Amino acid sequence: MEKVNRINTMNSSFRNIIPISITLSGAIILGLIIGVLCSVSSLHMNLLQFTILLFMILISLYLSIYRQNQLLPFIVLVWALSPEVRRIIDWLFSTYSEVSIISILPHCVSLTLLIPIIKNIRSINKRVKVIAIIMGVTLAYGFIIGFPRYGMSSLFELLNYAVPFLTFIYISVCNLNIDVRYRWLRSLSFIGVFVSVYGIYQYLILPEWDQFWMLNAGMKSIGAPEPQNFRLFSTINSPGPTGVFLGITLAIMTVNSRWRAFGLIGTMLVGFALLLTLVRSGWIAYIVIILAYLFRSQLKNKMMLITVLAVIGLAYQFLLPLLPGASSITSRVSTLSSLEDDHSFNERISFASNVLSSIKENPIGRGLGSTGISSKISNNSNAVTSFDNGFLNIFYTFGLPLGLALIVTLFYLAVYFFKLSRIEKEFSSLSFAIIVAILFLLTGSNIIPGIAGVLLWLIIGLTFISTTKLTGKLS
C-alpha cells in the first residue's frame, strides 16, 4: 500500500512538472525572440530586462503552485507596472525602444495561468467552454491570415487578446470561495490607488524617466513634457489605457465598500487621477458602470451608492477648483455636452466612414497585427496603429463572420448577467455593468486586448464561479 501511495505521489508530481516546464520554456523562448528583435548592441540592457523577466516568471510560478489566491492580483500588478519599469530601464541606458523584452513581461507572467488551467481543465463550466471555443477559433483565424503579412506583430497581438482571456478560464476552473473573490477586487482597488498616487506625483513633478519617454515616444496628444502640462499616464502605457483602468477601478471602489482600498480617501485619489488623464472614455466607463450597477443591485446598495455619489459630486464641485489642473479638467468635461463641436469626435466619424469602406472591400479581415501598438514591430506601412472604433476594429481584424460571432458573444453575456442578477445581486450585477460599459466603449476604441481586457475577463469570471449552483435555473 505504501508503495502504491509513493507511485501515485510521483505521478502527481510528474503531472505538475509538465505544465510548469512547458510554461517556463514558452516564456523564455518568447523573451529570446523579442530580445533578438530588439537592439542587439544593447547587450547589458537586454540582459537586465531578461533577468527581470525570468525573476517575475519564477515568482508567478511559485504563486501558481503554492499561493493561488495571490496569483491574479500579482498578474494585474505586473500589467499595471511593467510599462513604467520599461521607461526606467530606457532612461538608465539612455536608449528609447519601441518594443523591448519588458513589453512581453505581463504576457509571460500571465502564461503561468496555464498550469492550474491544464490541471483542472475537466471542471470547466459549459458556458465558459463555448465562449472559449468561439474566442479560440476567432483568434486562430486572425493569426493564420495575419502572420504571413505582419509576422511578429501578429504574434504579439495574439498574446494581447489571448492572455487576458486566460484569467476568465482560470477563475472558472479554480473553485475558490467568496472571500478570495472579495480580496481580489480589494486588491484591484489597492493597485488602482497606487497607480493613482504615482500618477498624481508624476503630474506634479514629472520624473526624469517619464520625461525621457515623453520626449522620445512622439505622442504629441499627451501634452508638453513639463510638470502639470500633460495628460496623466502614470505607470501604464498612455493616458487612454490609464483612464479606462482607473475608470473601471473607481467604479468597483464606488459600488461596494468591501472592495474599497483606504475608504473614501482612496476613492477620491483614484477619481482625481482619472480626471487628470483627461480621457473621456474613462469617465464614461465609470458613469456607465455606476448606472448599470445601480439598475440591477439591491435597494440597500442603491441607497448607499447614491450617498457615495453625492459625496463625490460635492467634492468635485467644491474641491476641484482648488486642485492643480482644474482648468484643463473643466474644459475637457465641457466637451461631453458639445461633441459635435469637438475636433477629435469629428475625426472619429470621418475615420469610421473610411474604415467601413475598407471592410466592405475586404470582408474576410486583415488578421492580427494589422492594427494597434503591435503593428509597430513589423513597421508595415499598411497597418493602422491608432484605431478609433472598437467594433470596426474587430471586423477589420477578424472579418465579418467571426467578428460578428465575437460581438454577439459579448451581447449574450450582457443578457445572461442581466437575467442572473435577479438571483445573485452582487457579482452578476457588477459583471453586467462591466459588459455594458465595454460594449459602450467599443464605439470609441478596442479595449478587449491589454490591461482593460484583463479586468474585463477577471470580473466576468467572478460571476461564473460564484453562481455555479444557480446557472441551471437560467438554462
What does this structure look like?
By secondary structure, the protein is mainly α. The chain has helices spanning 2-37, 43-66, 71-92, 105-110, 114-119, 126-150, 152-173, 178-205, 208-217, 239-255, 263-277, 280-296, 299-319, 326-334, 343-361, 375-378, 390-420, 427-441, 450-466.
Notable traits:
mainly alpha, 19 helices, 475 residues, single chain
TL;DR of this structure?
The chain is an all-alpha fold and 475 residues long. Helices cover 72% and strands 0% of the residues. It has helices at 2-37, 43-66, 71-92, 105-110, 114-119, 126-150, 152-173, 178-205, 208-217, 239-255, 263-277, 280-296, 299-319, 326-334, 343-361, 375-378, 390-420, 427-441, 450-466.
**How far apart are the first and last residues' alpha carbons, in Å?**
45 Å
State the order of secondary-structure elements, H for helix, E for strand: HHHHHHHHHHHHHHHHHHH
Count of runs of 4 or more consecutive helical residues: 19
Secondary structure category: mainly alpha
User: What's the assembly state of these chains?
Assistant: single chain
Largest sheet: none
Shape: globular
Low-confidence stretches: 37-41, 467-475
Which percent range describes the beta-strand content? under 5%
Please write out the topology.
Layout: H1 2-37, H2 43-66, H3 71-92, H4 105-110, H5 114-119, H6 126-150, H7 152-173, H8 178-205, H9 208-217, H10 239-255, H11 263-277, H12 280-296, H13 299-319, H14 326-334, H15 343-361, H16 375-378, H17 390-420, H18 427-441, H19 450-466
Helix pairs in contact: 1-2, 2-3, 3-8, 3-9, 6-7, 6-17, 7-19, 8-10, 8-11, 10-11, 10-12, 10-19, 12-18, 15-17, 17-18, 18-19
